[in-house]
Specification:
mainly alpha
Length: about 230
């Protein structure tokens, strides 16, 4: 009945973050009303702030691991390139359309091949090999791989990408190999900070579109660039 469908659509549109995380829905209705955007932004920045304050306290008490700053990454790279690259890798494929998964496979395979060969993505070294591998994987996803990805239960798929996003950040230039109660607490907070951020950004990508999660990620990285 039309009334039932209308109510169902309205309920789906009002589905908030917590309800979504209990049951991730690939086909959640997009909602770009200002109040809905504000709610998502408040969730993202308030949870981030709480965890950052916790990590700052541990840093103040000298209970955090030592960090090696990577000065080889330019400021524009930290503020813009890394957020866009990470969103392409971990949030773009949440909409499992054929063309999206194909573009994602091409981008992620290029990054992974560059890492495997020990070269920067913007360097020309091994470029023919990287491009050839990228084309091969992209073709595989276009012709049949996308169907396999579509068969994965979306809840598992959604959480796997968020956890992978969090784990990828645990390799961030931590140089202190000595584990204490303080450093363990710092690592736990840092892992929760990155993974929870990944979950909220994933929700933002599905609920509000890809550009919003890129913008939120850029705003998060801006303070680290200066």
């Amino acid at each position: 009945m039309p009334i039932t469908n209308s109510n169902s659509t309205s309920d789906n549109q009002r589905k908030g973050l917590l309800a979504f995380l209990r049951r991730p829905d690939e086909y959640v209705t997009q909602d770009n009303r200002p109040i809905s955007l504000l709610h998502t932004c408040l969730w993202y920045f308030s949870t981030s702030l709480i965890l950052v304050v916790g990590m700052a306290v541990l840093i103040t008490l000298d209970l955090s691991p030592a960090v090696n700053s990577d000065n080889s990454i330019p400021l524009w790279g930290v503020a813009f390139f890394l957020p866009v690259a990470e969103e392409l890798a971990f949030r773009l494929p949440l909409r499992r359309k054929r063309w999206i998964l194909t573009v994602w496979a091409g981008a992620i395979s290029y990054f992974l091949l560059s890492m495997a060969l020990g070269t920067k993505v913007y360097e020309a070294e091994y470029l023919p090999w990287r491009v050839a591998g990228c084309i091969a994987l992209t073709a595989g996803i276009w012709f049949s791989g996308w169907k396999w990805l579509r068969r994965i239960r979306f809840g598992w798929y959604f959480y796997l990408l968020a956890i992978a996003f969090g784990c990828a950040h645990l390799t961030n230039n931590f140089s202190d190999g000595c584990m204490t109660a303080g450093t363990a607490a710092f690592f736990i907070l840092y892992a929760v900070y990155q993974t929870l951020g990944g979950l909220i950004l994933g929700y933002a990508r599905l609920k509000h579109g890809f550009l919003l999660c890129v913008l939120l990620h850029i705003l998060t990285n801006l303070p680290a660039a200066f």
